[in-house]
Structure formats: C-alpha cells, structure tokens
Amino acid sequence: MASAVRVCSMVMFSENISFLPYFYVIMRQVITFLLYFFLLVPAMAQDSTLYGKYRFVSGGDTLPYRMLLPAHYNPAKKYPLIVLLHGVGERGTNNTTQLRHGSRLFADSLTREKFPAFVLLPQCAPTDFWARIGFTSAASDSLKPITFRSEQPIGKSLALVSSLLDSLAASGKVDTKKIYVGGLSMGGMGTFEILWRKPGFFAAAFPICGGGDPAKVTLYANNFPIWVFHGDADHTVMVGYSRQMVNALKAASAQVKFTEYPGVAHNSWDKAFAEPELLPWLFKQSRH
User: Fold this and answer.
1) Does residue 13 have a pLDDT over 60?
2) 226 - beta bridge partners?
3) What angle do CA 222, 186, 252 make, to 5 degrees?
4) Helix (H) or strand (E) run with residue 147 in it
5) DSSP letters along 78-95, please?
6) How much is the pTM?
7) Residue 277: exposed, middle, or buried by beta-carbon count in 10 A (0-12, 13-18, 19+)?
C-alpha cells in the first residue's frame, strides 16, 4: 500500500518559543512515519507474501483472490476454511488491497500453528458491492438511508465468491463442516448476505460493522452461531444496522453474540480482530 510522503523544505527560524510546538508536531510526524516505514510496512509485506495470488474465472468473469495455506500443509489432510470479505475501500483488481485489514491476524505464526486453516480473501470488483444495497433519501430509526435489496439476484462479485467456495468445498482439501465467513463494513453486509444466499454452507460467521436484511435471518438463524461486532460511535455504518440484525436473530432463536464497543468509530474491526476469544470461539464451531 503506497504512502504519500510530503517533503518539506527546512526553514531557519530565530529562537522563538512560539515555534516550538510546531517543531514538536513535525518531529512526531517524522518519527511516526519512520516507525511505520521501517517496522510496519516490512511486516505487512512479509505477511502478504504468505498469501498466494490467484484468479478464479467463471463464465468469462474473473475474481482476484489471495489464499493462505495452513501451516505445515499436508495435502492428505482436510482443513477449515475462513473467508474474509473486505470493505468498500479495498475494492479493485490489483489483488492486493484486500489484505489491508485482517490478513495479519491469520498470518501470525502463532495463530497459524494453533489454528491451521485455509484463509481466503477475495477482492470485489471496483464498481460492485458484496451485498445488494441501495440508498434512499429518507432515514428511519437513526439509520443512514441504506436499503438491502434482497429481491435482486446475487451480485457478480459475491456470485463468484459463492462459486469459488463450491469449488473449494468439492476439492477434498477443505473440511466442509468447518467453513467460516466474516467481513468488515461492506464485507459485514456481504457476510449477512451470503449467509442467506448459502444457508446450509457455513459453520459460523463474524460480521463486523455491517448490516443486512432482517427479514432473511429465518433462513439461517438456527444453522450456526454468529458473533456480531460494531462501534457505537460509527457514523459511516450506523450501529443500528447491527442492532437490528441482532434483534432479528434473537427473535429467531439464533445463537448470536453481540459486542458493541463504546466510543469506537467505523474501525471496530481493529477491536474485533484483537478479541482473544474470537479464533478459539470460531474454530470450536462445526456444522452438523
């Protein structure tokens, strides 16, 4: 991920205490950039190399995706599969930006040793969305005017993901009782969408700062557990969308957990991926 660096010319100032705060701010920015460049960027690059680059082609359409193999991969064994759907800012065709959020958690060496699994990160097309959504001019219940258009056929990008999952499930390499799906923001919406599009396919789900059609939860509510995450200060995708889905799931007697982070804005995925119980909870789940 490219970072834009502003090069500032150095200006000589006479000694004046009023310039000191400005100087300290600039120095903090320089130090922050250097730490990012020399520590975080190499770590992210190292993590990204663990994810193989692939393209899935179906009916003339192409889905870029990255795949992490289980640690000490044994072709004779079957492994769980985790699908992680990215947000709107990671759409594209470069097969890289979808690694921005979440990939480091699963590429961590300790995580890979403890929870060996395939990890799939597909990339949504630049002009597409994982979920069928629309926007209206009116809002209700303190929600932004996002509507979930479940009457429409599945979108092209999510249809490709669905076909890829079918292919992987039929490969004999995946433990089909342990296929998990999660996503953030647009990917959280895509998570709720693919749950009702493929209701008997997954063993657990973890949508983060997303939303969905509450009328569809009865199609999957009793099939597997769901852990929902959202920040209550999210002004991009209002927390009300997750609350609405959780209420609908509870009404349908689903096994649903809801973690709402006080004061956290849209990037609640940082908190969710740092939850110490997320992966132990996830890998305990198995489809019956």
Assistant:
1) no
2) 205, 256
3) 20
4) strand 146-148
5) -EEEEEEE--GGG-SSSS
6) 0.82
7) exposed
